[in-house]
Amino acid sequence: xxxxxxxxxxxxDFIRDPYPTYAWLREHSPVHRFTLPQGMxxxxxxxxxxxxxxxxxxxxxxxxxxxxxxxxxxxxxxRDVLTKNMLHSDPPAHTRLRRLAAKAFxxxxxxxxxxxxxxxxxxxxxxxxxxxxxxxxxxxxxxxxTLIYELLGVPKRDWEAFRRWSVLGSDExxxxxxxxxxxxxxxxxxTRDLIADKRVRPGEDLLSDLMVVRDGGDGLSDDELLAMxxxxxxxxxxxxxxxxxxAVHHLLRNPDQLALLRAEPxxxxxxxxxxxxxxxxxxxxxxxxxxxxxxxxxxxxPAGGVVFLGLGSASHDPEVAPDGDRFDIxxxxxxxxxxHGPHACxxxxxxxxxxxxxxxxxxxxxxxxxxxxxxEELVWRPGMHFRGPAALPVRYRTAxx
Length: 401
Description:
Layout lengths: L11 H5 L2 H10 L2 E5 L5 E5 L2 H7 L5 E2 L2 H4 L8 H8 L9 H10 L4 H6 L1 H15 L2 E5 L6 H11 L6 H11 L8 H23 L5 H7 L9 H32 L1 H9 L4 H12 L8 E3 L3 E3 L2 E3 L4 E4 L1 H6 L31 H18 E6 L21 E6 L3
Helix pairs in contact: 5-13, 8-9, 8-17, 9-13, 10-11, 11-13, 13-15, 13-17, 15-17
């Protein structure tokens, strides 16, 4: 699709395929001013050469309470868990929170989860049976859900309610609604009780580990643990579900690439990197604000201005990805899917590991795999940040032995 005029951001065509719009913006309006649903002006940055350095520039802040007007903030009852975490804080608070969290997110710990991730994946595939039709978002998407609930130490009896609350709490379209606030308040209340219980009876889980991490005499308070749990819960589920769904979608759309991956399974890590570059789970980095009057690529942005750094657009920029609108698992990895700098995704290694295991096991088991509906019928998640199919119906049959 060729665009000859300024495109509509976040309309139906954009949600289905934002990359033609990004290509137009990179050429014609690389720092693009638009209006947020709340009526505030904002700027979308689209070129790699601008996005990457500004991800690491302290002149863009993250503190929602410092920069947003009161009417644009979440209600006071849930504001603490949505704003008092690593994602929405600046140094020195961010530096301290990330340092403490990193102690529980070591490379060794992530790799130690491999056997459990493999076990969960095999159990989910066993449940699908040798052939049939399923929505992979509902079935294989249970992998990151199960894993994050186990990591947080949520009792299995509570998973259904926990999932229902967290889905509503991560829905960009319902943010600020009564339903959103009710779900977030319920999740907050449950998680606070869970933290209190683990203070008395710690387990072998990430939440219990976060309670005991120390940097000198410093540790996380209960309020900080609550905000951290929310961040890990929403980030650990939704982005990895999207990664798995998008990976399957683009492999099925590109049968030559699927055939190459089946013939050379050692390319699986590179295939995951290309999925992240080509159609990563986060279209834009989370909201930032100009700490002072700044200029990006010749465009002035006033102090307090809202800035979105376009991760998806930057990863398609032909300056770093020649022929970037073509999906090619042989391509050398260079993308910003997990951000860059101090706010780079702390769970990126875990997401990669889950993606590799899920896709590898799926392709190994099912020699036949195809979409169960025409591609134009797929529904994509709307919003400024998360990117991925809302459902992915597929037909499958086990590989011939």
